[in-house]
Amino acid sequence: MRNEIEEKIYSGERLSDEESLWCIVDADLWDLGRWAHQIRNRLHPEHRVTYQVDRNINYTNVCNAGCKFCAFARAPRQKGGWTLTIQEILKKVQQTVDRGGTGILMQGGHNPYLPLEYYTDLVSAIKENFPEIHIHAFSPSEIVAFSEFFEMTIEEVIKLFIDHGLDSIPGGGAEILTEPTRARIARGKADGEQWLNVMRIAHNLGLRTTATMVIGFGESNEERFGHLKLLRDLQDETGGFTAFIPWTFQPGNTVLEGKIKPAGAYEYLRAQAYSRIILDNVEHHQTSWLTQSLKIASMALYFGADDFSSIMMEENVVSAAGSHYCTDEDEMMQVIRTAGFEPMKRLTLYQNIYHV
Q1: What is the per-residue DSSP string for 62-98?
Q2: 77 contacts: CB under 8 Å, gap ≥ 6
Q3: Beta-carbon neighbour count of residue 132 at 10 Å?
Q4: C-alpha dihedral sign at 33, 31, 229, 25
Q5: Rounded Cα gap, residues 19 and 113, in angstroms
C-alpha cells in the first residue's frame, strides 16, 4: 500500500478511506513527514512560514459544560470563578495594539449568568475603539450555548454578532468530534454534529473559521480519521476553513491526569503530517508550539505545517493544565529562520502577508 499511497500523493490525488487510515496507523513517521512536506510545498512553494501577532483573551472562566479535560473552567458558583469587564478587556486590546498586534482570539466558558448584551456590547466596544483589530471570537460550542441561553437559533446568534463586528470564528471546542470519546470527555457541551453545523452556518453567512483537532484523550485511530474526514467533507461543501491546527491534550490539573497516557512529540508530529495528507483541502496548517515547544514546532514545519500560529501574548487555558511555553516575535522569527524558512507576518485570514 505504501507505494500506491506515495504515487497518489505525488500526483495530487486524494487517498481512499482505507489508505488514509493506514497512514494514521501503520505509516512510517519519516514517510509521513516526506509526503506531508511534499503537499505543503506544492501549496506553498515560496519556502516561507507565516505567523501573527495577537492575543488570546478569555472573558470568563465560569462554565457549566463540565468537560473532563479542562483545568481552566470553574463551575457556576464555584470558588475561583471570574468574568472580565468590558473595560478590562479593552485595556488588554490596547496593550495588544501597542505591541503591534493585529487581532484577538476571544473565547470563554459557557457562563449562564451573563446577559446577551454583555457579548454584543463587548464586540461593539472593541470594534468601535479598535477598528483595525480583527475579532476572532466565540467557538462553536460557545455559540451553541448562547443559542440555548438566549433562546435563539444558531443563525440568529451568528448574524447578531456579525452586525456588532465579529470578523471570524475560531475552531476551538472541537477536541475529537467523533464518538464515543466526545461523549466521554465533553458530555455537557456541543456534540460533533452541532459543532459542524455552527461552522456550516457561519461559512454560509460569509464568515471564515479555523478548524482544530486535539489528540491524546485515549481516542481510537478510527476516531481521529473520522474527525478529519468530517472536517474535510465540510470543507468540500463550503470552503470556509482558513487553517487547521492539531495539538495534544495537556492533562495536568484535570480529572484525567494520571488516567490516560499523554500524547508526546512523536504522536504530535505524526498527527501534523497525516492531517496535512488527509485534510488536503485546507490551505494552511499551523504548528502547536504552545503544547509541544518551539523546537518540536520547528520540526513540524517539515511535517506539513506552513504557519507558526501566533505570538499569543496571553494564554490561560492550556497553561492552566501545566503547559507554559512562551515566546516573543524576535524569538519566533529566529526559530523559523533556523529551521530554514523565511518568516512572514500575516493577518488573521492570511491576507496582507508581508516581510519582517
Answers
A1: B-SS--TT-SS-B-TT-TT--B--HHHHHHHHHHHHH
A2: none
A3: 10
A4: negative
A5: 48
The DSSP output letter for 178 is: S
CA-nearest of 190, 150, 179, 174 to 65 is 190
Q: Spell out the per-residue pLDDT of the chain, length 356, in tens.
A: 999 999 999 999 999 999 999 999 999 999 999 999 999 999 999 999 999 999 999 999 999 998 988 888 899 989 999 999 999 999 999 999 999 999 999 999 999 999 999 999 999 999 999 999 999 999 999 999 999 999 999 999 999 999 999 999 999 999 999 999 999 999 899 999 999 999 999 999 999 999 999 999 999 999 999 999 999 999 999 999 999 999 998 777 777 777 788 889 999 999 999 999 999 999 999 999 888 889 999 999 999 999 999 987 665 554 444 445 678 899 999 999 999 999 999 999 998 676 55
Cα–Cα distance measured from residue 354 to residue 51, given in angstroms and rounded to the nearest whole number: 10
User: How many other C-beta atoms can be found within 10 angstroms of the C-beta atom of residue 65?
Assistant: 18
Q: Which residues pair with 343 in a beta bridge?
A: 49
Note whether 211 and 140 are within 8 A (CB).
Answer: no
Give the cell for residue 262: 499523554
Q: Please tell me the distance from the alpha carbon of residue 68 to that of residue 29, in angstroms, as a whole number.
A: 30
* Matching residue, cell 513517521: 29
- CB-based contact 54:135 (threshold 8 Å): no
Where do the domains of the chain lie? 2-355
β strands within the chain, DSSP E = 48-52, 54-58, 103-107, 134-137, 168-169, 208-215, 241-248, 284-285, 307-310, 342-345, 354-355
pTM of the model: 0.94
Cβ proximity of 207 and 239 under 8 Å: no
The CATH H-level superfamily of 2-355 is Aldolase class I (3.20.20.70)
